[in-house]
Automatic annotation (TrEMBL):
Gene3D superfamilies: Methylthiotransferase, N-terminal domain (3.40.50.12160), tm_1862 like domain (3.80.30.20). Its main location: cytoplasm. Belongs to the methylthiotransferase family. MiaB subfamily. This is tRNA-2-methylthio-N(6)-dimethylallyladenosine synthase.
Amino acid sequence: MTKETENSPDLKSGKGSDKDYSKYFDFSDAKLLSEEDGKTTYRIKGRNVQINSAPNYRDEKKRGKEEIQVHYENAVTDELKNLGIGKKYLIYTYGCQMNEHDTEVMRGLFEDMGYVSTDDRMEADVILFNTCAVRENAEDKVFGELGHMKVLKQQRPELILGVCGCMSQEASVVNRIMQKHAHVDIIFGTHNIHRLPYLLQDAHFGKEMVIEVWSKEGDIIENLPKKRNEGLRAWVNIMYGCDKFCTYCIVPYTRGKERSRMPEDVIAEVRDLARQGFKEITLLGQNVNAYGKDFVDRSYRFGDLMDDIHKVDIPRIRFTTSHPRDFDDRLIEVLAKGGNMMEHIHLPVQSGSTEILKRMSRKYSRELYLELTNRIRKAIPNAVLTTDIIVGFPGETEEQFEETMTLMREAQITSAYTYIYSPREGTPAFDMADDVPLEQKQKRLARLNALIGELSLAYHQGLIGQTFEVLVEGESKNNANVLSGRSRSNKLIHFEGPKDWIGKFIQVRVTAAQTWYVKAEAISEPALASQAV
């Protein structure tokens, strides 16, 4: 596997990105030590920093026509198989399901090298922070943890400390770590996770901080090992990246352009998980509806993939996340077949105002979103829709916020992830006037959440007396005598029953409604799924 080496950033001028990051961090004391084999080494704050490749916003915006290669060779070579013998690793994961899945891959790589997992940072020989860049508070948490790690690193100098994930794709973040957190040993991004074994090898035998962040997205690497923590539910990545460039979102820069896995590789992975006894699969992508648009040798889209997976003998198939613009009739047709196709559809709208959607560059209107939800409900009468909402986007008026409130009722949304707008440097919205006062944002968020609670409770009250299928996931967090599970439409259900029901499908009758879940009584163990909540 080869790649083009990215240019190293000019630490003093901020060159190599569209922003001048020197206004944030002073690298006047950085000394250039060497430039050879595409690698640049600086001396910063008493430590050598080796830059194999660095993040670059200009490159991250590019959407070239280069063909994405698919590679099937093993990421852990024979010479690296024993690198971790007698050593332990710990990964802290922040952010979305994609990050969780990336962590599963890294766990697999660690264990292929002989490492053993631990939850005790005092025992760990390697600690990685797999980070999220979507919201500012996620970054604040990571930097807070890195501050705590400095003391641990002083106590145990042999500890290898790494930062990876979406934050690492931001030039400002990498510069800050180089300047303020010299105790970090390795920094890598979202495109070169398969390079982890080699970076660990460098960290074990070298003393430099090593930075290898590819701004040009990598090729698709198959056959990567995965260590899943449970044998009940599994995530399967079907594509990488996003080309939507919503004005508030950093993901197209941190995850790169859209590139789809070959359908035969996805289906083979799903079949293998079915053979292993997994009960539920969730297909992952930043925008799963765009799956297959990048294929040049075949006409095969997300609906076709779902139709093929529909034929695999696995009880439940879910997917996330959808973009309304790409949600086509072929997909609706396949979902309407039922069976192992779940009736829950997460369909982020972000705002109920056409004007705000235009400023967000969502490329659909309020009317088109509602027309889509109507088409879905016509084909799938028992469909349950959930969504994402951002309040306080630049320029949002009270009237435009009210449009979001009314859309929730019109679209019959039963649950939503809600957020206050958070400016992300490097996105177009960062240059917009953030003119909605924080107090006003908080009030709008509270009103929105109250409405969602009202809609959720009303929906749950309508379920009382009905019978549904539940996949039992475990004990309730608040009561060890109560089991907890999910319906086909992803509704949380609590009921009493023996622990040996965990991992099984149980028929229950709803007895009481709460705002965010329902209570039920078990009536039998089903052989197959029935009605959806």
